[in-house]
Amino acid sequence: LLSHFSSIGFWGLVNNAGISTFGETGWLSMETYEKFADVNLLGSIRTTLAFLPLLRKYKGRIVFMSSIIAYFTLGNGIYSMTKAAIEKFCDALRLEMKKFGVQVCIIQPGNYARSTKIQPPVSAEEIWSELSEEEKAVYNKEYVQERANFFNSILSEGSTNGNEVVDAMVDALTSPAPKARYMVAKLKEKALVFVCALFPTFVMDSVLSYALSK
């Protein structure tokens, strides 16, 4: 890598790859958890480690795509898990890279499902057919349908202004003084993050439980 880029320099790396799915904890297989960790978390780490010598040499930038879902979850805990993990990786990396003049930025989009198509609408029938017999004995089709409808309603509310996220990525790469975190989200979404960060856990649990009950 170093010999290939040495004549032109290397300024920025954007770790954007990610996959999403829906499902309560016991509905998903261990293979699914491993796949999500491999793509959303380890994929970004692999790329970062591969380009780190160049980024240090040219005092470049590293940008990671996280999400406000790193703070809370409403049916996609597996995605939330990977985003929370990448945030901690970034926090460590940001501090370590300061001495080399390398800046690390995190983009935290809100709901842009209609812009990215990262998460297609979920099918209650498909979810039910893939459940283990143990899970089918605990849940019923009506519950799965309710949760699927709830999640699909969230997806339908997603913003179509994906350019807002791209603008944040560009600023992170080009600004003389980039932010450590760019939260690109609606006021309601920012309020949820605020409650999650500053209030006792039971308060956030109450808010999310109320939302799920609706």
TrEMBL record:
Keywords: Membrane, Transmembrane, Transmembrane helix. The chain crosses the membrane at residues 62-79, 191-212. The keyword Chloroplast does not apply. It holds the Pfam family adh_short. It comes from the Eukaryota. Belongs to the short-chain dehydrogenases/reductases (SDR) family. This is BDH protein. It comes from Calyptomena viridis. The lineage of its organism: Eukaryota, Metazoa, Chordata, Craniata, Vertebrata. The gene is Bdh1_2.
